[in-house]
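Reviewer 2 asked us to include a model.

Predict the structure of this chain.
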Amino acid sequence: MVKLRFSGVFVLFLVLNNAAIPGRGQNDGGSIPGLIEASRALVPAMFIFGDSLIDNGNNNNIPSFAKANYFPYGIDFNGGPTGRFSNGYTMVDEIAELLGLPLIPPFSEASGDQVRYGVNYASAAAGILDETGRNFVGRIPFNQQIRNFESTLDQITNSLGAPDVAQALSRCIFFVGMGSNDYLNNYLMPNYNTKNQYNAQQFADLLAGQYTQQLTRLYNLGARKFVIAGIGLMGCIPSILAQSAAGLCSEQVNQLIAPFNANSKAMINNLTANLPGARFAYIDIHNMFQDLLTNHESYGFNVVNRGCCGIGRNRGQITCLPFQVPCPERDQYIFWDAFHPTEAVNILFGKNAFSGGLNFVYPINIERLALL
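Predicted model (structure tokens):
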């Protein structure tokens, strides 16, 4: 992976320590360029960890089969394909915008002035478990994503000092969306022995134990404001629908992941109680998807059971190929490809996570978390 240049990280943390001060950045003879814009944001920066749902290019330059840096991915994104597994925005893109931040750059490309508002470490095919996603060869598991974040801190702590870094990080949002691949590209894969070693609850407990350790590592590195995204209705994505001759949701798959989501809620309650100063917002992607599928017409979606771009039954047997012509009515589709939502859904879910009620985000939404 490409490391951030020291000068860029140094600028970032100067901004983090001053961005939230009202009026800061006016022409007072000693300000740093960009502080006027930063003072309008609800938080100084956002650091992002996750998988293909929020990867924005970290897999582009590694030997991996999990890539989306080709057309028609990004067909509706300003600038075209970037590595986002969507026709446009991801959910974290929308959340960044609602927080008043610019789009957060991928770790693989971030340098200099680009990193002042945060870094995206997410990687397609990545999981909580290191072995998850090995079918795709290259990917950056959550443990390595944390080490990548740690490497940026090593560069600045020696210069600024630990207290200054800690104070800056305590005001930032740490977004984590992991777990989907531990099921799709581990437990449910025929060449993994995982399903023979663990039942659904045992596997969810294994993931929760590892996840707890990983989030605690981020806390020990200075994170205090966490946003944790759960897993959606995985049994209803086109890839799973395509495995049914009738094109029906798999209740078996939905029941398989239910213990993970239950464990995730319990995990953040325990971490809140045991990590002084830590606050969490849990995005209930399952409830969001259930609401969307039930009320899709009221949200403006007409196609709920197949991808906009893909091949085979439900356009989910082979995912979106290079230069394949996607559906023209992309804003009416829930799914972009075999696994990922369209930009329209990502924006809807981002807004729900930012300002929604307890049915979508627990125990507080991102807006309230940012203002703490």
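The chain has 13 helices and nine strands. Strands lie at 46-50, 173-177, 225-229, 279-283, 303-307, 310-311, 318-319, 333-335, 361-362. We have added this to the supplementary material.
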